Fold each of these.
Amino acid sequence: MVHLGKVPTHKELEDQKKDLPDVGGLDLQPHGSDQFTASVYGSHYAAMDLPKHEMPEEMMPKEVAYRMIKDDLTLDGTPTLNLASFVTTYMEEEAEKLMVDAFSKNFIDYEEYPVSADIQNRCVSMIARLFNAPLHDENAQVMGTSTIGSSEAIMLGTLAMKKRWQKKRIAAGKDASKPNIVMNSAVQVCWEKAARYFDVEEKYVYCEEGRYVIDPKQAVDLVDENTIGICSILGTTYTGEYEDTKAINDLLIERNIDCPIHVDAASGGFVAPFVNPDLVWDFKLEKVVSINVSGHKYGLVYPGVGWVVWRDPEFLPKELIFNINYLGADQASFTLNFSRGASQVIGQYYQLIRLGKSGYRNIMCNITRTADYLAASVEKMGFLLMCQTGGKDLPLVAFRLNPKDGHQFDEFAIAHQLRERGWVVPAYTMAPHAGTLKMMRVVVREDFSRSRCDALIGDLKLAVQELVKISDAGSIDQYKDHVQRQKKAGKHQKGLNQHYADEQHSLKGKHGKTHAVC
Ligand SMILES: *Cc1c(COP(=O)(O)O)cnc(C)c1O
């Protein structure tokens, strides 16, 4: 998540300086002119802190700027060892080349870059067909667009459902001021944002211990005349399970309720069609009116692309569409942002045609196998598995300590141990009403090979052994203190925004749910 940064005051900057050691006596010799120096580290810039708060008055040589920023970034984690994230960390060089070549293209400029725009439409068409859009009907008008990610796609989906509901209410002479949306309390944070930003009341179906997906009957029971739609998740962020969209669909039909379903297929949209082709979750279900997917997750593109598709313009009201006249050409547009890069859309097209269905199928089946292997290994180590295997859900492994083992440490301590070995395996507190359950989650991505998986298993074993040793020595409380202190002292925590630290409105604020990274 991008942080909302707080700009430090002048006084805070002065105070920070007071903490620095005094190296006044270290001025060995004055720097000469750097003008002709070829060495980055011999220049006076290397002896200075990077400018952080005020834009410097003078320029610096490009080699120096490059090197300094590159060095600074080495303290970031290694993307391939980051098992917290669904987001793509590997693409072929050819794809990268195409994307770099397109860096300077503004995607919105349809007139100037008509091929890029057409490439987006080709992707929309392929994705809509992958999701079984009703194109057998010759009058079908399936619509779709690229976005920055699933979050924007979900904002657009929410707006469309809200507008359709409002129009219907107003046409019937009814009150249209209290829209609500029904969803699982394990939704990704963007659903909370969408509801809040667009003034839609959130109606949650809460998880229970043992059930981390939406209960279809409870969901449909919550629907009333003010419900704009139901969100069903194809692969929840916590346990990766697919929600039963068909059951929700069937209940709505059975009870003759006019309520659309939006499927959040951010992660599952490029997995289920290949690994689990018999699962019915998409436009084959008549109540499913819109679907989003993240191109940058199992769509296999670097971050910055998502997709959303609507079954029919009935579910995408005209009032939301702008015909943008750009340099003489009219283009229908439904986005939150105007300018954006074209690279990600081009990268998506490369993956779709380079890999084809068989390529995606091979990759998705391979990582499903790796996930199953990891799941079996953690179970053997005594952890409780919180996800399914065999391709019944996303290729991730969610697990927790067995309370019967009476360990004195928790999942967060294990995460910390693994972090010291370079792995990012997050620990989470589950969605509310699930007994404040803690869990760990490993997302298996394309570049997480079997041998890397074995390395992780080895380190996980070591981490647990180490923590048992610390517990046996009676020092686990000191260890927990140490972890807490490290967290607080973390250099990068300084940037956290204290002004908003006590927000109480979200599922996190109210229930302590951790928003999963995805
Ligand atoms: C990742 C994710 C999102 C948010 O998608 P972005 O592409 O990161 O904006 C929404 N819903 C689910 C289920 C997700 O996994």
Amino acid sequence: MHDNIVQTSTWSTPLAPAISGVLPAARRLSVAPMLDWTDRHCRYFLRLLTRHALLYTEMVTTGALLYGKGDYLAFNEDEHPLALQLGGSEPAALAQCALMAEQRGYNEINFNVGCPSDRVQNGQFGACLMAERQRVAECIDAMRTAVSIPVTVKTRIGIDNQDSYEFLSEFIQTVAERGGCDTFIIHARKAWLSGLSPKENREIPPLDYPRVYQLKRDFPALTLVINGGIKSLDEALVHLEQVDGVMIGREAYQNPGVLAQADSRIFGGVDPFGQMSGVVLAMLPYIERELAQGTYLGHITRHMLGLFQGIPGARQWRRHLSENAHKPGADIKVVEQALAKVSGRALTADLTN
Ligand SMILES: Cc1cc2nc3c(=O)[nH]c(=O)nc-3n(C[C@H](O)[C@H](O)[C@H](O)COP(=O)(O)O)c2cc1C
């Protein structure tokens, strides 16, 4: 049924290998950890769009890893370079989990010091740890002692009324000097630990990019990655004049086409696909393999809904997948039908524009 679709994919060589040497470069652009969003199916899909950007898992807690029943570390080899985000506050438990992740082949461990949800605060971890910089340093030190892959921190610029530049820079200094952390991802807004939902905490506190730029000037030896509200590669390139890396969250998920030119524009390489349809076609073998193992189609296609955003036919694509992917026995025909509903212009939409 795709005879009329020009497949311009250059998707014939293996994906980036799992070598730690790729990490410093990969940090120029990363996709944020997002609970319920950046699961392994999502990451596989995003990896089709960019071979070089660093991908992060959803946050996984030490409790889930040590006492849970599921395999929370599962990933596909093609996802590299890949970082596991850990949530917790006990150095020994974090060290044990970091080692498990290193043995499974993750390229980086990232420690969550930015999530403001109540559930996370009850566990005494996430953003509330910003107030306990010595403890964060101990956690990082314990993980760094246990593994040889990099251990990084993702945090905010402050919490509640502890939002001065001095508070932030003391946090960074302590965690860098006492914990040995040399890479920080900074979500450039503070978090209110009570009164705002996690969603509101991603929207209401104002973004303060200059504060992150100032950190880079004050700690030039550290690798600093900026995050929050970045919606285009043009914006990313502007930030890259000031900091070492850019992390994109919601825009990469809701409008994944934003990543399609990342390999050429951010990494100086070659983009994997010239046309939108190529990305969908490249997902089909993966979807077939997953369905054969019992994965439910909707669990994969829910991450692909935003692919044609801004292009004629995007709504039909989304609607067909949303209405049909959950039906019993739904298979790749649903994806092929959805693709067929997208207008010809969208199918051949140039990803390089
Ligand atoms: C649905 C969702 C889930 C998130 N889950 C996590 C998480 O597990 N760990 C984390 O550090 N941040 C999490 N975040 C925050 C993002 O990583 C990122 O810091 C935030 O969305 C700001 O970046 P953006 O404006 O580019 O989206 C989540 C964000 C969203 C939208």
Amino acid sequence: MKCTTCGSTSLIEGVLLDEAGAEDKKFVPKDVSYLKRLFGMGGRKVQAWGCIKCSHLQFVIEFTDEDRARFREFAGQQPSVLERLNPESSSQT
Ligand SMILES: [Zn+2]
């Protein structure tokens, strides 16, 4: 892995902990429902990498193959949740 800020390859992998020491930081796409989020569903594990040289912190999301297949069709700007749910209404704007 390379630092996106300075280009160094001196990165160390780590985890982000909250004050209680919980290590369950997850990335949750915006279209995951509130109820699913409430029960901890729909989140993807996040890896954290710190650059020794410039202290830049970067994240990597562990997307599943299913996620890639689902989101790959949208190149560039991702559609909003409403546009995704009702694609016909967005084409009229
Ligand atoms: Zn760096």
Amino acid sequence: MASLMLSGTGKLTVLNNRTPNGLGFTTSDFHGKSLSFPKSSINATSRVSYSRTSLVPKCSSSSVSSSSRPSSQPRFIQHKKEAYWFYRFLSIVYDHVVNPGHWTEDMRDEALEPAELTDRNMLVVDVGGGTGFTTLGIVKHVDAKNVTILDQSPHQLAKAKEKEPLKDCKIIEGDAEDLPFKTDYADRYVSAGSIEYWPDPQRGIKEAYRVLKLGGKACLIGPVHPTFWLSRFFADVWMLFPTEEEYIEWFTKAGFKNVQLKRIGPKWYRGVRRHGLIMGCSVTGVKPASGDSPLQLGPKEEDVEKPVDPFVFLPRFILGVLAAAWFTLVPIYMWLKDQIVPKGQPI
Ligand SMILES: C[S@@+](CC[C@H](N)C(=O)[O-])C[C@H]1O[C@@H](n2cnc3c(N)ncnc32)[C@H](O)[C@@H]1O
């Protein structure tokens, strides 16, 4: 699957342009056209104009956290405790139900390509590694003993521990926003499908920067904000679906250089990106100097260990789970369309 590569921070409005088919995306875009944008480390907010200004929370140059959720975007599962319980149940069926419909092996391998896992001796951390599906892609290129899987869900990690190719990996519980690795530790930071649950994604990306060695590379894979109104509604109720511009901005603010974004998605979507979840992206950046990120943030706001008010937690959890159900129907609907609509035509 060929992908669109974007370099730097500028002029990403082109991605929001409407196409003749109204999808905000053309099939030819998805299948190989390559666009380049000027590289720059200046604040992306001043360079990027969003077409969904009123709906998308922005990291302004003065903000120190990206954790705010406007009332139009309650994101009920973008909280650590809710995500913990979500995966308490989802872990039971995750490998059988979630990945085949949302995150396929060929997508994974395409998405990991920009990580440049070129040496078996590289030290790699897989953050939000869950049941180890993405780690299985990593250990094709890197010795398992050099790979650490970190996740806040012991239930997801229990599934990873059962996998034979991962038996030599280090498997630890931890928080993506507060990694238990020393500064300048790893050659590669990988995180797939986890940022959408982080209450403060900018903090997680700042941590990615900190734990990498000089010249190390972060590869963060995640969904994109849907443009189809119903998918956008359910996405905003469920969790964080960042825009492509936000990914670039978070990486740039954390201090990464050579920030690039590669679009990914399953073949049966034929390039349609309006539903957001699995039509996502793989964002990479290189650490240009050793030490911590130049970005200063205030204290962490949420901890999975913190007790919650059950009267607030429960309704939030139930509404979030209901919204998530929409995204089990979308891939089936798109698959059926792919079967019915003649090949070569837009769906
Ligand atoms: C969709 S799963 C992705 C799992 C795996 N990376 C894969 O590719 O299949 C998201 C994972 O992120 C984990 N997660 C969510 N918030 C986290 C946090 N703050 N710190 C660490 N892991 C987190 C969840 O527990 C879950 O296992």
